[in-house]
Amino acid sequence: MSLTATLLTANSGLQAAQMGLRAVSDNIANVNTPGYVRKTVLQEPRVVAGQGMGVNVTGTKRLTDQYLELASQTATSESTRWGAISQYMDTAQGLFGDPTSDSFFFKRLDTIYAGFAAAANDPSSSLLRGQAIANVQDLLSESQRINGQLSSLSDTMDSRIAADVSQVNDLLGRINSLNGDIVRANLVQQDASGAENIQSQLVDQLTQLVGVRVSPHAGGGVDIRSADGLLLAGDGAVKLVYNATKGTPGNITAVSDGGAPQPLQLDSGEIRGLLDLRNTKLPALSDQLGEFIQGVADQLNAASNDANRVPPPASLTGRNTGLDLGTALSGFTGQTTVALTDSSGVIQRRVTIDFDAMTMSVDGGGPTGFSASSFDSDLTSALGGMGSASFTNGALQISASGGLGVATDAGTSQKAGRSFSQFFGLNDLVRSTGLGTYATGLTATDPHGFNPGDTITMRVSQPDGKTLQDVTVTVPAGGQMSDLVAALNNSTTGVGLYGQFSLDAQGRLAFTGSPPTNATLSVVKDNTDRAGSGVSMSELFGIGAAQRTTRVNEFKIDPAAAADPSKLGFAQLDLNVAAGTPSLRPGDARGALALAASGDVANSFGAAGGSSSSNMTVSRYASEFSGSIARDAADAQSRKESADAVKTEADARRQSAESVNLDEELVNLTTYQQAFSASARVISAAKELFDVLTNMI
Q: Can you give the residue ranges of every domain in the chain?
């Protein structure tokens, strides 16, 4: 080897050792710098004309472990997702109060039933009647307060998601910008580790907000992709947009320069947790709260409609059933009685209605047939000038004349689990400004009543809010409910690709998403109108969160009873008394006792929130509902703790691989120092040899 080659070899060794010493120096200087990843020098043999000529330094490299980075980022995303869910589920649980406290929401049921039991002991006491009504009002008011707070929490989710999306957009832009810096540094073989460290920290911040997939970018840096593979940053950064409309699932779309918005699928991260709360968990609580209050109202109204005021009122006006008269009357079984009494409670006209035989009997006389579609006029005829019946906008009204009052006896009448009087809401204690119930009583062979050609547009979404499709269903020409259900479930023009609508025995129409998407439905636009009543399909059946989550706000105490507790009906119509003897007596407390026991009567509950349809007492449903709230909060906390444990372990292993080890750096420092000294000694020896040769010449 020539002296020149020797000098070149030694010089390359000096430079390599110097670069190594510089890398070690940076590592030691940044031993306590958060996010710093230790680096090392990359070297390769230098070969000239087939001969070794020392070493080339090709650059520096951060000592990262891609697997550990991925594990840490994934664990971080899961931790923040469940952290958000746990935080707000705990807040939601707190809205119902402390189960050990007397103010616990569900304990108000016991207060209601105790209040009616006390009133039954002294039916003439306006004070006790007023207190019983106040107890019911307290439950309704508290349920509406809770529902309002749940709605406010949903608004909070909107604000937080919007803020997080703005932060994600900033992070994506900075990560993408750093890609350019890293690529340029690598092209000129400069140290890009500083930019790479900053970029790595930004990626870590990003994974707290959204679950992403990180991969190497050509030339240096990283590519950021969503869970479904959409490129978010790498060769340009997209802009995320949060789309939120009340009553429909919020979702995230990604917009690139000049491109159309693309739905973004999220599987983890804080934003996914907030979307889960906003789209699923909070609406589910509101929905189940509404179903619970509906169940309480149903049983109170069942008892109230089997009782009457003393003296009875001049008219009874029912609720808007959303049905036409013929459909509303069809399907009833058993018997019921409508009576007109004087102020003393003595029956002046009695009409017994037999739905099995479709006949009316006046004052015990022979039966006369009637039809469902003309029930109001037939009943008016049977009342014989003493009273009348009318049916307007889905509501039945029965009136008396000449100072008489109207009373009813539920008898054995039954449709959709309710008596005749309760089905029409003639003597409801708890009324609703809406329809009040989704148990329509409709069967597959009943007319659906909607105009052919009317449309309803529904949005099919994934649980994370990602829109799958907006589906517009046209009301079919076929007039039966089975035709309507078939149109809704059509796989081409309906939602059949994503799930199925079904009509249960109580006339509830419910949608169930099919796995694996388990899609949910919301209503974008509803142009349907049933039988000219002004009631749309979504209102009648409670389709979509916009309807179901506001239902609880529609319940109120009957205005007449609220204004005057003496108008709370406690007396039951006695049809076995002798002629001229009062059938309604002021001291009769059987209705009050029935109200007090209504919590222990089985009720049909529809599917709501996370619960399936069931048949149980109101008291048991309250216990199940209370337990499910606690379980959901505990489950979220448990998942958060598990995710935190995984994150802690993943972070520890990643730090072990990436952080600076002073002992290891000391060994590297000694090695590079010795290499530097050896190269310097070779240069010195070459110089001495050159001097000897020069002197010889």
A: 3-63+660-696, 68-89+153-281, 455-541
